[in-house]
Amino acid sequence: MNAAEQATNLELASKIATVVNLFKSQFPDVRSDLKPWRNDPETRELVDPDSIDLGFHFPGRSKSFQSRSILIEIRFYQDPLNGSRACIGVEASGFDHRGKQWRLSTVENWQSEGATQLEPEANEKLKQFCRNAITLFNC
To answer: How many whole angstroms separate alpha carbon 5 and alpha carbon 21?
Structure first.
């Protein structure tokens, strides 16, 4: 779900702002987007209500990331029995004019996969960002 919609209290809004700053500290030329998903019925069906989703857009296509935009999804699990919410990890995906180019998931194996590959330095910076986000949300 869009980060702007998930910022329902001061603590969560502060953590979302911190995540944006963490990403921008690794990649200063990006523009952040707290509403990466459209607000239409078809898109709403695809969006996970138990995630905080942020978009980051480069000024052009990034050679390091083989993409123009990166979607970050901080994933949570909502326990149906007691209603508690726990962070389970981060998923990142890179997009350009051809669609999704790669995906990295900390929920799975921390390996990037897809049509294109990130440059090693960019891959390590992205993994460090994911570690910091996981720590922030106590995943």
So the answer is: 18
pLDDT tens across 65-107, in order?
999 999 999 998 877 777 777 778 999 999 999 999 999 999 8
**Contact indicator for 106, 118 with CB cutoff of 8 Å:** no
- Long-range interactions of 4-11: CB distance < 8 A, separation 24+: 4/34, 4/35, 5/35, 6/52, 7/34
Identify the DSSP state of 28: T
Q: What is the CA radius of gyration of the chain?
A: 15
Asked if residue 52 lies in contact with residue 73, where contact means CB atoms within 8 angstroms, the answer is yes
pLDDT score recorded for residue 38: 65
